[in-house]
């Protein structure tokens, strides 16, 4: 069994830790890439298998264009993936929109929200003067 | 033990207990309809599922068998909660069950779970699809799932713009 022993005389232990952390990150990236390649190969294999039997081939695509399935799938997507998935096709966009509206709001609200409130207050304060002025005329 | 015959689209018959079959919303309704229409209460219901082939039906029944003691959740539970339930219910058995399947089978399983109203199975299969979506670009998702963009005119560009202007709540 191998153990990682940190040198006791090391002057910069934080440096060693950051090196180890970057090594772990690299390994994780490699692992992710490899698992993605395996997935792609499996997908290719299943495509080849299904192309032998075209009658069943429809099932692969249709499941992800089925409204109920899509509506269910949406709840499993992370907020980050919601943005990407909206751009896949119209059906996906329509299925994602209700959750998207719950999770996101327009940037406009945050940046200009106060400005809108000031404008509204100003309009409310100005309104009686305008009304009085028009009634005098 | 009361039994029910479930027949797949390719004619394979599966004999399962009614208790197990009733864990599927669709089969439960079919059994109840059969009971109402049948004079003989001892008669064995026969349900033909014309959209699911034997291999997939076997997998659904296998999953139901494994989860026969789990609580039955309503089909719209995720919509009520606003989140998926698969994380909570996914066991090591589920992971081993799905691991050898290629995506074609998973897609058929999703449709079958949806058709038979087996929420737990639908959740874990959707979770699996989600894991294939996570971190991919739009083009990669389209290629992986053989989907085509059907946006008209500048719809796609508009959606991109909306995405850019949106912030998380």
UniProtKB/TrEMBL annotation, chain A:
Residues 17-44 form a coiled coil. InterPro entries: F-box-like_dom_sf, F-box_dom. Residues 65-104 form the F-box domain. SUPFAM superfamilies: F-box domain. The keyword Amino-acid biosynthesis does not apply. The keyword Transmembrane helix applies. It holds the Pfam family F-box. The chain crosses the membrane at residues 112-132. It comes from the Eukaryota. Keywords: Coiled coil, Membrane, Transmembrane, Transmembrane helix. This is F-box domain-containing protein. The lineage of its organism: Eukaryota, Metazoa, Ecdysozoa, Arthropoda, Hexapoda.
TrEMBL record, chain B:
Pfam families: Skp1 (PF01466), Skp1_POZ (PF03931). Residues 4-69 form the SKP1 component POZ domain. InterPro entries: SKP1, SKP1-like, SKP1-like_dim_sf, SKP1/BTB/POZ_sf, Skp1_comp_dimer, Skp1_comp_POZ. Keywords: Ubl conjugation pathway. Residues 119-166 form the SKP1 component dimerisation domain. The keyword Signal does not apply. Pathway: Protein modification; protein ubiquitination. Belongs to the SKP1 family. This is S-phase kinase-associated protein 1.
């Amino acid at each position: 069994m191998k153990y990682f022993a940190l040198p006791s005389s090391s002057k910069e232990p934080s440096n060693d830790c950051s090196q180890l952390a970057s090594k772990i990150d690299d390994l994780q990236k490699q692992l992710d890439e490899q698992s993605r390649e395996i997935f792609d190969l499996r997908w290719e294999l299943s495509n080849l298998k299904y192309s032998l039997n075209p009658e069943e081939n429809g099932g692969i695509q249709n499941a992800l264009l089925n409204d109920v399935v899509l509506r269910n799938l949406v709840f499993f997507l992370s907020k980050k993936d919601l943005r990407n998935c909206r751009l896949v096709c119209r059906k996906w966009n329509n299925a994602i929109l209700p959750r998207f509206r719950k999770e996101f709001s327009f940037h406009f609200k945050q940046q200009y929200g106060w400005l809108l409130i000031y404008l509204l207050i100003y309009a409310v304060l100005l309104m009686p003067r305008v009304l009085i002025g028009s009634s005098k005329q | 033990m009361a039994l029910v015959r479930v027949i797949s689209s390719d004619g394979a018959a599966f004999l399962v207990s009614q208790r197990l079959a009733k864990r599927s919303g669709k089969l439960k309704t079919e059994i109840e309809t059969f009971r109402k229409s049948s004079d003989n209460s001892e008669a064995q219901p026969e349900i033909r599922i014309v959209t699911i082939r034997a291999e997939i039906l076997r997998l659904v029944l296998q999953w139901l068998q494994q989860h026969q003691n789990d609580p039955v959740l309503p089909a719209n539970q995720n919509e009520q909660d606003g989140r998926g339930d698969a994380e909570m219910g996914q066991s090591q058995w589920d992971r081993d069950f799905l691991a050898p399947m290629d995506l074609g089978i998973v897609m058929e399983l999703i449709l079958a779970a949806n058709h038979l109203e087996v929420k737990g199975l639908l959740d874990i299969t959707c979770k699996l699809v989600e894991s294939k979506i996570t971190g991919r670009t739009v083009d990669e998702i389209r290629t992986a799932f053989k989907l085509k963009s059907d946006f008209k005119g500048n719809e796609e560009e508009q959606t991109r713009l909306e995405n850019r202007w949106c912030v998380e709540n």
